[in-house]
Write a structure and sequence with these properties.
By secondary structure, the protein is α/β, with parallel strands linked by helices. It folds into two domains: 181 residues, Class I glutamine amidotransferase (GATase) domain (Rossmann fold), CATH 3.40.50.880; 115 residues, Orthogonal Bundle (Arc Repressor Mutant, subunit A), CATH 1.10.10.60. Helices cover 47% and strands 12% of the residues. It has 14 helices and eleven strands. The longest helix has 19 residues. It is globular. The two termini are 14 Å apart.
């Protein structure tokens, strides 16, 4: 699977580093992995911070690629160079995928790739994005959006969240989780950008976050929201209110997400029965497992296993 990282300038070292870490770093522990190149259509040299210079390959046209990654794009630039526009649109029209990090969403919006899609970017650019692209359905409180063809992420570290989601869809949950662990990150971060807009998260763990750390290690059908509230020394109503405020979801939704993560891992990596997987993941019954799979993922557990186990075996 071929990936091309496209530099458009000015150089954003962090977002570029995210792209190369996610898709270009060799991972010999996997049977197959991405083949990644770094190119520019305009120059072979970019200046970075602290008097740094990056030299890359300059090309007349984009090489054949499955996934095009745009780490950044000048927010103030309202006209897209004809060659850049032509090459990206040709790639997309031929069935290729395109994702952007941070300000790269402005380029995708200028090219009309968000037609009929939702979009996001860094919260500091949200007002500017909405004003320039009123026809685009903008979502404030998300870390990333990806529909399998086009993706975009909020600023900085949210690029990694989007990249891990792309890896999960390409290679399965096991690959994505392995990459996340190497980055010392969770495979999925709940919540959106709003928690970062006014102030950073507190370093000290709240009673709620401590309870969630405990809950991840004690998932079972007996683990209920009432029990979590008790462990946090809160009433159920107070716990629900605090949880919704800080995580932008209900405690039950969070519990179901964690249980689904366990179930997906077991479906991909083991031959355990659906009944046993439901038990190990903390669902009340196989029926509950199937209901949550269909509701959240629009696929049955058996179909999920057939899709991801077979794809991983083919890549082995």
């Amino acid at each position: 699977m071929k990936v091309t990282i496209l530099l458009t300038g000015p150089l954003s070292l962090f977002e570029l580093a995210c792209a190369t870490e996610l898709f270009a770093l060799p991972r010999p522990e996997f049977g197959q992995w991405y083949s990644t190149g770094l190119v520019s259509l305009s120059t072979n040299q970019f200046n970075g911070l602290c008097h740094t210079t990056l030299v890359c390959e300059q090309v007349e046209e984009l090489p054949p690629t499955d996934l095009l990654v745009i780490p950044s794009y000048p927010v103030s630039q309202t006209e897209v160079e004809s060659k850049l526009s032509e090459q990206i649109l040709r790639h997309y029209q031929q069935g290729g995928r395109v994702i952007s990090f941070c300000s790269g969403a402005f380029l995708l919006a200028e090219l009309g790739l968000f037609q009929g899609r939702a979009a996001t970017t860094h919260w500091r650019y949200a007002g500017q994005f909405k004003a320039r692209f009123p026809h685009v359905q903008y979502q404030d409180d998300v870390l990333y959006l990806y529909d399998g063809r086009v993706g975009c992420s909020a600023g900085s570290a949210a690029a990694i969240d989007l990249g891990i989601e792309v890896i999960r869809r390409d290679y399965g949950y096991h690959y994505a989780n392995t990459v996340a662990r190497r980055l010392v990150l969770p495979a999925h971060r709940s919540g959106g950008q709003s928690q970062f807009v006014q102030k950073p998260l507190a370093v000290a763990k709240s009673s709620v976050s401590q309870v969630l750390d405990w809950a991840v290690k004690h998932l079972s059908s007996e683990l209920t929201v009432d029990r979590l509230a008790q462990r946090a020394n809160m009433t159920r109503r107070t716990f629900d209110r605090h949880f919704k405020k800080h995580y932008n979801m209900t405690p039950l939704e969070w519990l179901n997400e964690r249980r689904l993560e366990v179930a997906k891992t077991l479906l991909e990596t083991t031959s355990l029965s659906i009944d046993l997987i439901a038990q190990k993941a903390g669902f009340e019954s196989p029926v509950t497992l199937r209901h949550n799979f269909n509701k959240t993922l629009s696929i049955s557990p058996s179909r999920y296993r057939a899709t991801f186990q077979s794809s991983q075996q083919q890549r082995a």
